[in-house]
Amino acid sequence: MKAKIRKLVTFVDETLSEQGQPVVPPIRRAAAVAVIENPFAGIYREDLSALIDMGEELGGLLAERAVAALGIPGTEVQSYGKAAAVGENGELEHAAAILHPKLGAPVRKLLGKGAALIPSSKKRGGLGVALDIPLGHKDAAFVRSHFDGMEVRVNDAPRANEIMVAVAVTSGGRPLPRVGGLKASEIKGEDGLR
């Protein structure tokens, strides 16, 4: 079953300065969101494989759109994250089915790597609910400078029988990081942690 997409939305933000200090180069974050029909809204199904397959389809589509909006090659993306919000007739497990088993593989393929787990969040909400997309370095989870998040919302989604699915990517970590920890330049890339 293919995802029935009602709407695609792309967000980009670019930070040029922070607390009066220039951010050089500017940090860019982009998120692509699909608003899809939830085929299991209002009904219990043991087998969620249709949503799992939609996750793979949406992972590729949304990653391509987000990277294109970021304006850099996929191999230069530093951080990533994913999130989903189900409407009131959905369940959190619907969001989990889309986000977890298969969505990450096409994202990693586009980025050329991605050893670290893709941070994720899921929630239930109504029209205009904020979708909080956690972000972390794509190759090493312990890079503190890249612990971040991006909030997006679509004013008319999710409807009761819909799911909002998002993939976010960045050109760097937080602006002006200074809380220590592993630096991006020190990544070994062996285990997805360091």
Structural description of this entry:
By secondary structure, this protein is of the alpha+beta class. The protein is 20% helix and 34% strand. It contains 3 helices and 7 strands; from the N terminus they run ββαβααββββ. It is globular. The mean pLDDT is 96.
CATH superfamily: BB2672
CATH top level label: Alpha Beta
Q: Number of helical segments?
A: 3
- What is the fold-level CATH name, i.e. the topology? 60s Ribosomal Protein L30, Chain: A
Low-confidence stretches: none
**What's the domain count?**
1
Which structural class do you get from the secondary structure elements? Answer: alpha+beta
Task: Note the overall shape.
Answer: globular
Cα-to-Cα separation, first versus last residue: 38 Å
| Helix share bin | 10-25%
Largest sheet: 7 strands, mixed
Proportion of strand residues: 25-35%
Give the SSE order as H and E letters: EEHEHHEEEE
